[in-house]
Structures are given as structure tokens and as C-alpha cells.
Amino acid sequence: MDLINTLIGEGRELSCLQMSVRTIITFFVALAMLRIAGVRTFGKKTALDNVIIIMLGAVLSRAITGASPFIPTFCAALVMVLLHRLLAMMSYYNETIGKIVKGDKVMLYSKGEELKNNMKKVQISHKEILEEVRLQANQQDLDGIEEIFIERTGEISIIKK
User: Fold this and answer.
1) Quick one: 6 and 30 in the same domain?
2) DSSP 105
3) For the chain, what is the domain count?
4) Exposure pattern of 47-68 as b/e (b: 16+ CB <10 Å)?
């Protein structure tokens, strides 16, 4: 027990060695937790995924700096990861839960008409739509475009005629 206390320390007065050991342990614990959370956590970047990324980083940093007790901090992080996994599974089986925790696509353009209310709701301007048309469809205008959506990840998708 004395060796563990010497290596990881206690409280906020930590040596370089203690913070380094805490960093190594936290790195591997975080890696294991992200494996539990699933590969989609860093893939899709929905609101649900961003919440876990931000909160996990904030909580685990407290374990490294000694701002919170070492083991309880890991327990709190594990609860967050398991909650993320549970919500992701629930949203797979239930579309309503999926819309609540992940969001839903919003149509921005359809059949020759920009949907101004939807564009305002998601704060996308005409210029930004044209930028995406240039980047994705390799054209200067909306001719030949059937629909444009902002997906729940925040990405713009374009469907050509």
C-alpha cells in the first residue's frame, strides 16, 4: 500500500513522478473506457458523442492533477461511459430516444427552394450552402441539386437530381 501511495500520491501536492504515473494509468483507463463506449464515440460526433468526449476529458484530468480522489474519479468516468453506451443502444432500438439524444437531420433545400426557416433554425446561411455545393457537388450553383440536409452530426449532405 505504501508503494502505491508513493507512486500515485494523494491530494494536490503531487511530485512529477506521481503525476507521471497517474497520467500513464489514466491513459490506459481512458483507452479501456473508450473501448467500452464503442468505436462510434469518435466517429460520428453527434451531440451525445461530444458530451462524452468533453466530460470524460474533464473528469479524467482531475485524476491526473489530484483535484479529485483517484479511484472515485475513475468510477465516475466509467458511469459516464456506461451511460453513453446505454443511450446509444437505446437510440438504436427507439427512434424517439435517438432523436432526443442524437438529434435529427434538417432539410435546408428542396426542389429548387431554400427552406429559410430551417436554415435560420440551424444557423446556416445561403453562402454556406453554396460553399458545400462547391465542395461536394463541384458546381457553382444549386442547379441539378434535389435536396440539401444538415445531418445530426452537423455535416451537410447534398442529393443531386
Assistant:
1) yes
2) -
3) 2
4) ebbeebbebbeebbebbbebee
Q: Identify the residue whose cell numbers are 454556406.
A: 128
Segment 82-138, tens digit of pLDDT: 998 898 899 989 999 988 888 889 999 998 999 999 999 999 999 999 999 999 999
The arithmetic mean of pLDDT across residues 137-157, rounded, is 91
Residues 54 and 125 in one domain: no
Does one domain contain both 75 and 117?
no
Q: DSSP string of the chain?
A: -HHHHHHH--SS---HHHHHHHHHHHHHHHHHHHHHH-GGGGTT--HHHHHHHHHHHHHHHHHHHTSS-HHHHHHHHHHHHHHHHHHHHHHHH-HHHHHHHH---EEEEETTEE-HHHHHHHT--HHHHHHHIIIII--SSSTTEEEEEE-TTS-EEEEE-
- DSSP-derived letter for residue 123 is T
Residue 137 lies in domain: 105-160
In degrees to the nearest 10, what's the CA dihedral of 66, 71, 77, 81?
Answer: 160
CATH number for the domain including 137?
3.30.240.20
pTM over 0.90? The answer is no
